[in-house]
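Each lists sequence, tokenised fold; shown next:
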Amino acid sequence: MSGRLFVIGLGPGNANQVTPEANHAVADAEFFYGYKPYVDRLELKPHQTRIASDNREELARAKEAIVKAAEGHAVAVVSGGDPGVFAMAAAVCEAIEDGPAEWRDIDLQIVPGVTAMLAVAARAGAPLGHDFCAISLSDNLKPWDLIELRLLAAAGAGFVIALYNPISKARPWQLGRAFEALAAILPGTTPVIFGRAAGRPDERIEVASLAFARADMADMATCVIIGSPETRIIKRNGKPALVYTPRSATGRRE
């Protein structure tokens, strides 16, 4: 097959955080598939075409892009952040696995990007300085019981936890429930970072202790990072505090 398929991560939204590799892939593609706010970020040339779709149409979008690439075109599927982190790379791989055998011959290139938890962590200090994990609070594709089990297991093992998709109009209660569950095993002083739109003009970074963290401090543009019992806050005169997790661990619980 002569077609090519790029799966591109555009970072958190700041043009300076788009990698040179991603920019090269954008320059090489003819057709761009993605969630509308993401494809709208692209400054396309006259010969390039954007095809926008809704946020919950990932698999259909992936199949449509693969069909276009199979016809011999240079096609891009775009994601915010990194395409491999709760994003389009998995949908593309799923479509290829379940699709016609010839789809496996498509020239596929997955282009990494800066994911939200890295952008938020950089703004706050170094909360991911030791072991950490990422969990999506969306229960659209997995049951809430499994999400809560993973939250408790990660917190109990001393991981810093980055929460993606923390809250939405359709899912208003999950973040509050997550805080309640974690408060049963983590100290109330555990730092919680609310990083909204990191790197964009409407950026907002807030730090609260777990005891005072509230669900209404986040929206769908927020990545929430919950520290471990080892995570510390360094206060600085006239400057934002630094939140960091030491590189070594003692296993202390409080």
The longest helix spans residues 58-70. The chain has a mean pLDDT of 95. The chain is about 25% helix and 25% strand.
